[in-house]
Amino acid sequence: MTTDLSAIIPTFAGGTIDRADQVRVNPERLKEAMMRPNARLLKLDGLSPVFDAAGDLAWAPLYEASPDNDLLLLGIDGDTPCFAELNGAGAAMPAADPRLWQSLGVLPPEQAAIYATARSLVDWHARHRFCANCGQPTESRKGGWARQCNKEEGGCGAEHFPRTDPVAIMLAECEGKILLGRQPRFPPKRFSALAGFIEPGESIEGGVARELWEEAGIKVRNVRYIASQPWPFPSSLMMACTSVTDDPTLTLDEEEIEEAAWFSLGEVKAAMNGDPEAPFIAPPPFAIAYNLLKNWVEEQEG
Amino acid sequence: MTTDLSAIIPTFAGGTIDRADQVRVNPERLKEAMMRPNARLLKLDGLSPVFDAAGDLAWAPLYEASPDNDLLLLGIDGDTPCFAELNGAGAAMPAADPRLWQSLGVLPPEQAAIYATARSLVDWHARHRFCANCGQPTESRKGGWARQCNKEEGGCGAEHFPRTDPVAIMLAECEGKILLGRQPRFPPKRFSALAGFIEPGESIEGGVARELWEEAGIKVRNVRYIASQPWPFPSSLMMACTSVTDDPTLTLDEEEIEEAAWFSLGEVKAAMNGDPEAPFIAPPPFAIAYNLLKNWVEEQEG
C-alpha cells in the first residue's frame, strides 16, 4: 500500500507489510519463516503496545517467545518475518487508557497498522478458544489466522476465522450544518459523528439510514462513502459516510445519545483548531470521525 | 430506506422494513409484538425461501411456528410484526442451487432484503450454539439478534452478536480495460470481479490492494468505493470498488484464480448484453459484480 491508494488514510489504515498469506497456509514455509535468524517478535504487554527508547513499537528476537504460546504471523517486512505471541490476553470492551491513546496518536502509520492487526488477533484468539458450533476446544491454525476444532479429539472439525465487524460512522448534513452527538461515556464537551454496527441483511447505506433514524430520528438520503479504518477495539472496520436530510428536527434515543446538535462550518473549524471558544471539542486525530470532519470542511471550502 | 439513498441499490440491499431495535431489546415489547393478531411468520424450507402462488415470499400466521423454536424478530412492517423461526438449519458454504438463484433474481428488493436477513440469522444461530469463550451452550436473546452464555448454568455470561464479514470485490483498470477473473468453481466462460475478505488491521482500500496483489500480482492505486450489498451466503457484506494500475502484467495465484484477463469496454458491453459472441459470460444481475460492471460501463460512456 502506498499513500496514493486513497485520498484519506486514517490511523491504523496505513499498513504496508506483506501479509504473506501463502506462507500462513503452508506449514513448511511457515516453519522456515520462524527459523530465519532475523525473525522478530512484537513485544506486547497483554494487549498494550510496548515502545522502545525512540517511541517506536518494540521488537525482540523470535526466540524470546514463550514456548507455551502459539505464534501469529503478522507478515514479512522486506525479508524479516514478523510475529506476535498469542498470549491469552483478551478484552471484550474498548481500552480506555489515555496513555494508550496518546502513544497511538504519534506512531508512524505502518506501525499503528501492525499494532492494530496484532491487538485484534491476540484478543480474538483469547476469546474464541472453543468451537461455537460444537463447544469443543479449538486450536490456532494458519499462522494464527484461523482456529480449528479438533476432529480427532471429538470435535466437529469446523474452521473459524477472525471477526471483523463493519461499523458505519456518519455525518448528516442539513442547511449547511452537520449533525454530531455525545455518547454518555464521552469526555466533557466532546461531540463526534454517530455510529453503529451494520447488521445482517443490510448495506452500508441502509445501515447509515437506520442508525440516523434510530438514534436521531432523521430520515436521510444520498449516502456517500468517504473512507475506512480498521479499529482494533476489539475488531471493527469503521466506514465513514456522509448523508443529507431536509428536516433537522431531532428525536434522540437517549440510551445511546445524551445530546446531539447541528454545527456550522465555522463552529466545526473552531473545534478542529482547538479554539477554546468552540462550542464543542472535536474527536481526536486518530479517530476516523476526525478525518470525516476534516473532509467535510475541505469540501465546503473546496 | 428509499431509492434516493444511493445511486446503486444491488439485490438484497433494498430493505425498508423497520428493524425495531427498541422492541428487540425490550422483553415486554417483544412479547406484545408476538401476541398481536397480525403477527406473521416467514416460511422457510431449511434455509431456502418458500414462495406463494404469486411468486412472493410466503408468510404464515405466527401461531404456526413450532413451540420448540426460538423466534427472530425481522422487524415491523407498517404495523405488522414479522418473524422467522430459528429452525436449526445451517450451511457453512454458499448455496449452489440454481432454482434459488433464479427465484432470488425476480424477487422485489424489499423481499430479497428480508430473505437475506432471515437466512443469515437462522444460519448464524444454527452454527453458534456454543460460547466461543468458554464452550458452554448459549441461548437466543434480543429477539434473535444475540446469543448469551448462561451464567446460572456455569457459563461465563458472554454475549455474542451475529457475524457480518466485510468482503471487498473489485475492478482494476489499465489502459481502458478492466481485470476480471475465473474461480475454478465458476460455470464455463463466466468471468467476474476478484474478491476477498477484509482482514483485521486492514482498511477496505488496503484489502483491495492486497487481494489484487495476492491473486493477480498487480499493484493498484486510487481505490474508489462504488456500492455495497449484504450477501447472505452465509453472512458477507460485499463492498464494490474500482482501482487503477499502470502495469497490466498478471501473475496469478492459481489456487484462487484459474484464469484472468483484461477486457475492453466493447467486450464488457457485449457480455452484459448477453451477446453470444462476447468473450465471456457476465456475472448474474443479483451479484454486485454486475452492478460494478454496469457502473464502469456508464462511467466510460459518461
From TrEMBL, chains A, B:
It holds the Pfam family Zn_ribbon_NUD. Belongs to the Nudix hydrolase family. NudC subfamily. GO terms for molecular function: hydrolase activity. It comes from Parasphingorhabdus cellanae. This is NAD(+) diphosphatase. Its EC number is 3.6.1.22. Gene3D superfamilies: 3.90.79.20, Nucleoside Triphosphate Pyrophosphohydrolase. The keyword Metal-binding applies. It catalyses: a 5'-end NAD(+)-phospho-ribonucleoside in mRNA + H2O = a 5'-end phospho-adenosine-phospho-ribonucleoside in mRNA + beta-nicotinamide D-ribonucleotide + 2 H(+). The keyword Magnesium applies. The gene is nudC. Its cofactor is Zn(2+); Mg(2+).
